[in-house]
Amino acid sequence: MNNIYFDNASTTAVRKEVFDEIKPYLLDFYGNASNIYDLAKKSQEAIKKARKQIADAICAKSDEIYFTAGGSESDNWAIKGVADALADKGKHIITTKIEHHAVLNTCKFLEKHGYDVTYIDVDEYGIVSIEDLKKAIRQDTILISVMFANNEIGTIEPIEEIGKIAHEKGIYFHTDAVQAVGHLKIDVYKMNIDMLSISGHKLGAPKGVGALYIKNGINISNLIHGGGQEKGKRAGTENVASIVGLGKAVELANAEIEESTDYITKMRDKIIENIMSNIKYCRLNGHPTKRLPGNVNISFEFIEGEGMLLLLNSKGICATSGSACTSGSLDPSHVLLAIGLPHENAHGSLRITLSKYNTMEEVDYFIKEICGIVSRLRDMSPLYEQFLERQK
Ligand SMILES: *Cc1c(COP(=O)(O)O)cnc(C)c1O
Q: Whole-prediction pTM value?
């Protein structure tokens, strides 16, 4: 049997339609966009088209889109770039406890360089507290960075409201929208967003390409010093083929949002309903409705996520866990801890992330396997044995 790929929040395959667009820019139209001959013009035009495709998808203007090498780079640029440009105005930044490490570790870095960062709490569903956000704002706050939707638990944040609060206080608002672009409708002006991070490989474009939307007029330092590419803000010969792929992938995903949301949500809800009604002692992490269409995150008491992943893998199913054990760290996920899960439960969690390329047959097969896997692991679990003893 082929792999059942349930890890679309980690990365995706390059879409066939995207690959077809990219290919000529690798083999035939390889001109450096900075030159004046026709071959270079081909590259210039391709970049221009991609910029417009991305701008259109988030209701921005073409000249507000800057290409980067991915989501992490966009997050780093937005935060360090504003921190540097506005250092004279203030050195306080507000973010949340559930951000991606590209945001959290950038903030940690700035803390070592004299900046002050407030990491605000979220509620049990992973939603940022607007009250806490308001309380955290100070005279010297220069930036608020809150993710659009969380990559682990799928919770969608009240972005428009946060942006409004930021703007009332004259504070810039950045959002890491890597999990949202192509999945949720976005209008950067209506939602009061000043900067927004995009990554290609989460939506069918190649790895190593992304974009940062920077609203015109925002004061931000240049990221890479060199040639005049990206208006001199992010130098380096453009990655034309990948940029073409990013534009195409964003355009396709955005045009398909309604159709794929319906289809993907049906698969998601079938998994959630089946697990919650057939397996005891488990909990759905994230918000029941304000959640990404393709995200399932469930904690199973008394078992280790790693055991689950290995058994799923032996059945050909690719999934991830909230436990970072596999990546060499014993710390449970900071996101699951932030929503109040005890350490044991944060370890026993499973994340499934679906795409339009998954099928109901795969979902049914998974549901059948996961029930067996959980009971097998519980049968071997000393914690479960103790629990049953206590129940007597
Ligand atoms: C994947 C991801 C990133 C990092 O993007 P890369 O392109 O892999 O650098 C940042 N933020 C979120 C929410 C992500 O899911």
A: 0.97
Give the CA distances from residue 92 to residues 83, 116, 136, in Å, rounded to whole numbers and listed in that order: 9, 5, 10
CATH architecture designation of domain 16-255: 3-Layer(aba) Sandwich (3.40)
Sequence-ordered list of residues with C-beta below 8 angstroms from that of 368, at least 6 positions apart, any chain:
none
Taking residues 304-323, report their average pLDDT: 91
Shortest-distance atom of ligand 1 to CA 74: 9
Q: Which of 10, 156, 179, 351 for a ligand 1 pocket mutation test, highest count of atoms within 8 Å of Cβ?
A: 179
Query: CATH homologous superfamily for 257-377?
Result: Aspartate Aminotransferase, domain 1 (3.90.1150.10)
Catalytic annotation on 325? yes
Rounded to whole angstroms, the Cα distance separating 141 from 166 reads: 10
Confidence class for position 347, pLDDT limits 50, 70, 90: confident
Q: How far apart are the C-alpha atoms of 378 and 383, rounded to whole Å?
A: 8
Q: For strand 295-300 and strand 349-353, is the pairing parallel, antiparallel, or unpaired?
A: antiparallel
pLDDT at 331 over 80: no
Residue 145 and residue 128 in contact, taking contact as beta carbons nearer than 8 Å: no
- Domain 16-255 and domain 257-377 have a common topology: no
C-alpha 131 to ligand 1 mean position (Å)? 27
pLDDT single digits (tens) 210-228: 999 999 999 999 999 999 9
Nearest CA to ligand 1 atom 8: 71
Could you give the count of Cα atoms lying within 13 Å of 24 in the half-sphere of its Cβ?
A: 9
Q: How far is the CA of 342 from the centre of ligand 1 (A)?
A: 26
pLDDT category, 77, cuts 50, 70, 90? very high
Q: What are phi and psi of 352, to 5 degrees?
A: -115, 125
| Phi/psi of residue 359, nearest 5 degrees | -130, 160
Residue with the nearest Cα to atom 10 of ligand 1? 71
